[in-house]
Design goal:
heterodimer; A: alpha/beta; Elongation Factor Tu (Ef-tu), domain 3; Rossmann fold; 2 domains; 5-stranded parallel β-sheet; 3-stranded antiparallel β-sheet; 5 helices; B: mainly beta; 5-stranded antiparallel β-sheet; 1 helix; 38% strand; globular
Chain lengths: 231, 89
């Protein structure tokens, strides 16, 4: 590990130097495996947070009673090593060459693979319109808040909804993602957007059903759920 | 759906050890109902092993388990798997 960047109180980004890393695509993940001295192994998947042209970065949310995330976020120090396999997955990948419009819907740390996609989109300057709808509990819990705000421009739109608490004077969305919000924030089904939904299983379930209900072709709605054992 | 329900792409890591081509974008035909889906898009249940089920009829498509050294793969629920190898087929 090279270093750690805190994102929120419970979320950190680990910058890694991986020998012989073959390169990756935005949306892929890695499997991290930790082995205890007694041989016990725990494995978790983490989305890759960095675009292809940067060192590998993983953004990890601390799950208090988890088996892997407490080690990655609290104990790991610069120079420490751990085992990972990757990059893996091809289904949840998006690259600028696939075109747009792009509609990304994230619940909490589900925003991680979308950071890789948006940073790559911004750096290539491809003519693709992208919308990120990001649901977080509070303003303090918004992962990559400043970074993605700076990225927003004519082509990249970032919309937040804060489900539990809102800062004073907040005039944005303050509820869970629903059909009305998806319609207002994102491109219409007629625009044939590439839609990616990432978050906890119940979030993805709700959003994917709402999108299909609005008329989005199920084949264009790609999902990545993460379970409660995440950690 | 239960909280342990994920997507087929969660099986990418283990299946990558078995197949030379990317499997989550491979299209599988359900032996039960004929539905065709990318394996990354199907329903995945995570337990001691991984079970992939059809989105349409809920039939079991793939079961995969490992003990860390060996991998057991049961694909009898997939009638056909359409893969796209990197190099010449």
């Amino acid at each position: 590990m090279l270093d750690v960047v805190p994102e929120t109180a419970r979320v950190k980004t680990l910058r890694l130097d991986v020998p012989d890393w073959p390169g990756h695509l935005p949306g892929q993940h890695v499997d991290v495996r930790l082995t205890a001295e007694d041989g016990y192994q725990a494995q978790r998947s983490y989305s890759i947070a960095s675009p292809p042209d940067r060192p590998l970065e993983l953004t990890v949310e601390l799950i208090e009673d988890g088996e892997v995330s407490p080690y990655l976020t609290e104990e790991l120090r610069t120079g420490d090593r751990f085992e990972l396999r990757g990059p893996v997955g091809g289904y949840f990948v998006w690259e600028p060459s696939r075109g747009g419009p792009l509609f990304l819907v994230a619940g909490g740390s589900g925003v991680v693979p979308f950071r890789a996609m948006l940073l790559q989109l911004a750096s290539t300057g491809a003519d693709v319109h992208a919308t990120l709808l990001h649901s977080s509990r509070s303003w303090e819990d918004v992962i990559y808040r400043d970074e993605l705000t700076e990225l927003a421009d004519a082509e990249i739109k970032v919309v937040h909804t804060l489900t539990r608490s809102q800062p004073e004077g907040w005039d944005g969305y303050a509820r869970r993602v629903d059909s009305e919000m998806l319609t207002e924030a994102g491109p219409p089904p007629d625009a044939r957007p590439h839609v990616y939904v990432c978050g906890p299983t119940p979030f993805v379930e709700t959003v994917a059903n709402a999108l299909v209900g609005l008329g989005h072709d199920p084949a264009t709605v790609r999902t990545e759920r993460f379970g409660p054992t995440g950690g | 759906m239960d909280e342990l329900t994920l997507d087929g792409n969660a099986a990418a890591g283990i299946l990558q050890q078995v197949f030379a081509a990317e499997v989550t974008t491979a299209r599988g035909t359900c032996a039960g109902c004929g539905q065709v889906d990318a394996l990354g898009a199907v329903v995945l249940y995570s337990g001691p092993g991984l079970v992939l089920r059809c989105r349409q009829c809920d039939s079991v498509l793939v079961k995969v388990a490992t003990d860390g050294e060996r991998i057991w793969l049961d694909m009898r629920g997939v009638r056909t798997l359409e893969l796209r190898p990197e190099g010449p087929a």
